Amino acid sequence: MAENKKKTYQSASGEKGSKNDVQQAYKKATPTGSAGGFRVGAVALWLAAIAFEILAILVFKGVVNLKFMPQIAQLIVFLVLDLICVIVGSQLWKRANHIDPVSKKNKTKFWLWNNMGVIVAAFAFIPFIIIALLDKKADKKTKTIATIAAAVALAIGVLTSIDYNPISQEEKAAAVEEIEGDVFWTPFGHVYHAYDDCQALNHTDSLTYGTVQEAIDHSRTRMCSFCAKRMEKEQGIDLTNIKTDGKAVDEADIPDAVPEAE
User: Comparing C-alpha atoms, which of 83, 91, 214 is closest to residue 163?
Assistant: First the structure.
């Protein structure tokens, strides 16, 4: 079996080094941001996206014409700016939903709140596509290129706006209440770990750690299933209401005692 990598740690506040070096710095971790601020930023960017779509429509109709740039180039520029605003706005909205999630009791509101980016992406491109397709007077080449560009932008906008790991108010509250101490997450992972010697981290050499609140605020909304089973086995903690990554784990795979990683 391959030897586990020696890990370096970074607290949620950004302090780096060995775990012992940053243990105290972790206690002074700075807030990850305001949900309200992220939502305001998201809405502002989404409004800008709609404005760029309107400009693209006006260019397509010939109402707006930037003489220093061909029409098709103008359309592409405005559609790209539209897409950038949609994507960045959606990332801010998802971050806000992780910091301040909504209750799952109202399923309609929960779905709408967590898919707001997808809805905006649709509004930011579908009207342009419909107008372009229905315009019989437009140049055929310009119409084809513009429609394809908008359709591709729509697909990208929708895929990047989906929150694949939404969390409810109830799930976050349960995690914060039940899980004490540090949790750990990797730079590009989507889950947090209750143990830094989890077998899923055997080949990871860099970890960030903080409270479960901070992990969720950083979009690690689910607990590793290995860690969940181990917590249930070793500590008897009821994790029924805590969101995990959903992978089936055989209890026999969880050792009675796992040596602490160096």
Answer: 91
CA separation for the pair 205, 250 (Å, rounded): 26
Alpha helical stretches, state H, 162-235: 169-178, 212-217, 225-235
DSSP one-letter code for 201 = G
Helix (H) or strand (E) holding 184: strand 183-185
Domain residue limits, the chain: 35-161, 168-253
pLDDT one-digit tens code per residue, 167-225: 888 888 888 887 888 888 888 888 899 888 888 888 777 888 888 888 888 888 888 88
Question: Closest by alpha carbon to 233, among 194, 201, 207, 191?
Answer: 194
One DSSP character per residue, 132-181 reads HHH-SSS-HHHHHHHHHHHHHHHHHHHHHH--SS---HHHHHHHHHH--S
Q: Radius of gyration of the chain from Cα atoms?
A: 23
If residue 208 lies in a helix (H) or strand (E), which one and from where to where?
strand 206-210
Match 């400009």 to its residue by tokens: 55
Task: Quote the pTM value.
Answer: 0.75
Distance of CA 110 to the CA centre of its chain: 16
CB atoms within 10 A of CB 28: 9
Dihedral angle over CA of 212, 217, 220, 222, nearest 10: 60
